[in-house]
Amino acid sequence: MNASLDQRWLASTSHSPGALQIRELSKHYLLDGQPMEVLKGIDLRVKPGEFVSIVGASGCGKSSLLRLIAGLESDYSGDMQLDGKAITTTSLERGIVFQDHRLFPWKTVAQNIAIALKRSPLTRQEKALRVAEHIRLVNLQGFENAYPHQLSGGMAQRAAIARALITQPKLLLLDEPFGALDALTRISMQRELQRIWVQHRSTMIMVTHDVEEALYLGDRVIVMDARPGRIKYEIDVDLPHPRERHAPRLQELKEILLTELAGSDADK
Amino acid sequence: MISTASAVIGSRVSVGHRMLALTWLISPLLLLATWALVAASGHYSAQLLIPPADVWHTFKDLLHSGELLEGAAFSLRRLASGFVLGASGGLLFGAALALSKTVEVYCAPMFHVLRQVPSIALIPMFILVFGVEETFKVLLVTKAVFFPVALATSEGIKAIPRSHFEVARLYRLPRYSLLLDVVFPAAAPPILTGLRVGLTRAWMVLVAAELLAADSGLGQMIEMGRQMMRIDVVMVGVITIGLIGFVLDSSLRLLERRLFRWKAIKE
Ligand SMILES: Nc1ncnc2c1ncn2[C@@H]1O[C@H](COP(=O)(O)OP(=O)(O)OP(=O)(O)O)[C@@H](O)[C@H]1O
Ligand SMILES: [Mg+2]
Description:
The complex is a heterodimer. In chain A, 36% of the residues lie in helices and 25% in strands. By secondary structure, chain A is of the alpha/beta class. Chain A has two domains: 27-93 and 169-268, Rossmann fold (3-Layer(aba) Sandwich); 103-168, no CATH class. In chain A, helix 6 (183-200) links the parallel strand 7 and strand 8 (203-207). In chain A, helix 4 crosses helix 5 (153-165) and helix 7 crosses helix 8 (248-266). Chain A is globular and about 50 Å long. Helices cover 81% and strands 0% of the residues of chain B. At the A-B interface, loops of A face helix 8 and helix 9 of B. Bound molecules: adenosine-5'-triphosphate (ATP) and magnesium ion. The site of adenosine-5'-triphosphate has 11 residues of chain A, from strand 1 and helix 2. Residues 29, 31, 38, 56, 58-64 of chain A line the site of adenosine-5'-triphosphate.
């Protein structure tokens, strides 16, 4: 990634990070005709440009929360707003990256990324240019014409991140984006995400099972509890970015978080 | 030394490959040999069991006189018109059946009953309604193609994982793009299988229709041969029909392989 390119890329984008406000959000699914509370009374405010990590036991409703914010779920109670606008359905202002990359297997990397621009008023050339920029942003030069099955897990996930970023969403949701990757790839992907976030400055909310990852990236870490899913605990990570992975402060916070998480397991 | 050794190994591998490529020839050759032997044994009259060499002669005669090609051209023209009609109809109807609740509620039961009716069973009715001319044969082919294609399209689309549709919703793809970029590519493999099934069935029922009522085509050539006790002509017809069916199916299979290069090769 060369510097002049970064500059040009930044100059060409006019994104403003979004402020998210969630009040009294509850959601239930029907399981064998019985209502099952998945989320109950979630209150959450995310500042523009903030990076929020969410951790919590499996099944506590983290994915459900992100899907609700993305607009993929209907039928909930409560109130969700992005920059004061109520969230009712999906929108290009809110991007999401899933644990599985969800690229279309019949499209190449470039085509997969370009599909996010279907609704964009840009000309064909401008779109091609922007796709090329985002391929460089996630370091996939040379793989424009590769099909997803020809990519490694990490590369496919980077393509998915490029696809989510190309619409310049005000809010990017990440649901265990590196969950399926090996430890080394994970660490380099975290570094890349950090770099992209610093550069891009959109608001990000990331769900992860990895406490270190949550602390390394997040301005704030939220611990969720299960049955019904709710916010149990919040911790501010008062360190500037980019961070030193082994900073003593992160170690302290990790201890605290692990205790909280263990507590929520013991409750059950 | 090393280079000659590897050359030897290399040639052995390629010989092995060539042998493997030719194994398919064993069964037809065996059949041919048995046929020739039984015919030569004199147990059956040469009028009924024609020796292969005679059939070969008849084949060359029919080829030179143009009769064979003309018959094949007539049959293939009917097949092509019916196939285009049936395949496009099947694609559209199958997609509608999978994507629209209304269409499903109104049409699904009737569709599933009708598709159980063998095309051959429709020949008498089609003749009564449309006469014995081209319309009846083309429509019969259309019917034979329509149902497998419609079924494969609808099942193929219904089997598309919800995650693909969610991605389409996230990026707010317009309807045309949802169909062209997501639905049809995702369902293309089963649809192509449906097309292959439809083509094979259509070819079979077309020949049957030509046997019963036609003044041209390969089926009619066979029927004429039977009436004149020219079993050699009958056999040339039968073999040609088999070969054409095989070539048609193989070309679709080839298309399948070229089209689905995005799929991981499972070997
Ligand atoms: N479509 C659905 N229908 C019924 N129940 C569902 C549905 N989706 C999720 N659930 C239930 O909601 C609960 C929360 O699921 P969710 O996927 O949000 O958990 P999670 O915190 O993301 O878990 P994990 O960490 O394992 O990904 C689970 O108990 C799950 O069984
Ligand atoms: Mg989850």
